[in-house]
Amino acid sequence: MLFAVVVNICVAVIAGTMYVVLRKLKEVHVTIINGHYAFVIAFVSTLLWFIFRYNPQDPIQYQFDSYQYYLMLIVAVNTTVGNMTPILALKFDKASRIASVNFLLVLISYLGDVFIFGYSTHFLEIIGAAIIIGCSAVTMILKYTSKSQ
């Protein structure tokens, strides 16, 4: 559990840094940035796959059926589009405003678990989702009504 928290903190730092760097690349076309981004992701993912695939202590057991390949294809397409949208949005707005919308990822993931996978909901989870929606809405309103550019 602690490892998951550390990894999520690393993701937040890396994503925040990515937004700042991407903001400096306003004059570069979005497809060029997304192409480099996809290449690096493919390279790092392949490298990690080789490391973990041939790890003698914990070999990976593959048991993929056609449904698993279908889900991986959906993840790949959604990730590509998901990577391109903040890059495109950064051409038009500030990085902090774009990053403020990321809190909605938690809500959207939760709703996906509920509606797609049929997970049961609890009262405190619904309250948590409402708090995330409220905080995200307030943050977006404050950021979009601020005078600084």
UniProtKB/TrEMBL annotation:
The keyword Lyase does not apply. GO terms for cellular component: membrane. Keywords: Membrane, Transmembrane, Transmembrane helix. The lineage of its organism: Eukaryota, Sar, Alveolata, Ciliophora, Intramacronucleata. Residues 4-137 form the EamA domain. The keyword Cell inner membrane does not apply. This is Aaa family atpase. The chain crosses the membrane at residues 6-22, 34-52, 67-89, 101-120, 126-145. The gene is Contig8536.g9117.
